Amino acid sequence: MGNYSIKELEKLSGIKAHTIRIWEKRYGVVHPSRTTTNIRYYTDDDLRKIINVAVLNNHGLKISRIAGLSAEELTRKVHEITDEQTAASTHIDQLVVSMISLEEEQFDKALSHLVLRYGIEYTMTEVVYPFLHKIGVLWQTGNITPAQEHFVSNLIRQKIIVAIDALPLSGKGAKSAVLFLPEFELHEIGLLFHYYIVKKAGLKTYYLGQMVPISDVYKICEDHNPNFLITSITTAPSPKAVQELLTNLCAEQPGRQVLVTGPVVQKMALRLPPNLHMFHSSQELRLLLGNLNVSLNKIG
Fold first, then answer.
1. With 170 labelled, which of 26, 66, 97, 186 sits at a CA distance of 20 to 30 A?
2. DSSP string, 136-201
3. What distance in Å separates the CA atoms of residue 93 and residue 134, rounded to the nearest whole number?
4. What are 68-93's pLDDT values in tens digits?
5. Of 164, 192, 211, the domain-final residue
6. Which domain holds residue 214?
7. pTM, rounded to two decimals
8. Number of domains composing the chain
9. Residues 198, 98 share a domain
């Protein structure tokens, strides 16, 4: 059971705390509980309701009318709007609601609808990444369990893997890339999406996954001679450890282009060896691969 302050409710729903208080007092939209020391808090049910009320209110329904809807009517109208609308924020909110309730069918249906309608790239960049950011807020407030994170992560992984499998194999003579996460890194969804981008760009791919010893990366390089090494760093022991890892990797593999991303490295003032390149998005990765490919072809 979640336990949210009004400020946390504001972050997760996008509704100002002042507005939530008005909705409580005038319309009884939610009824906060109180601790033994008389501090107000909100439950998962309150969060779900506020998010659903916000969706309807943002699409033109007056709060006085929304407040009169039963729980079933509220849910039905939100689903109708979600099916019709293209606004990413609406879909993000519904993924949050589905995750909190562990509603696998609803979560999977929403993801499948987005992928079929807009494609995996739009779904990932405009919906899934902002959704994962909201999950980060839930982690910070202690209102999400490992079970809930694994629940959504596995469903998202399945969609990316299906999209990867649907891509054709690389052509003869294509450049190649190794994708891996360092030994301390567990967060694989971003790297999987990069795998999709790289394979779609026509490169031969060697996907090693999470927590890969650097000696294994060197062995793959020795055996298969890839042109690119691609990694992502979301968590790290220290900035010094990240700098040492990347510096040593570039020094040990001077003939290969090392491409790195992730919130940790994006916030650091890294010293960049000549063969180290940072990227911030799938679009930047695609452009970087294209530009480096051209340079490699000229050298070749």
1. 186
2. HHHHHTT---HHHHHHHHHHHHHHHHHHHHTSPPPPTT--EEEEE--TT----HHHHHHHHHHHHT
3. 9
4. 888 888 888 887 776 665 568 888 88
5. 164
6. 169-299
7. 0.80
8. 2
9. no
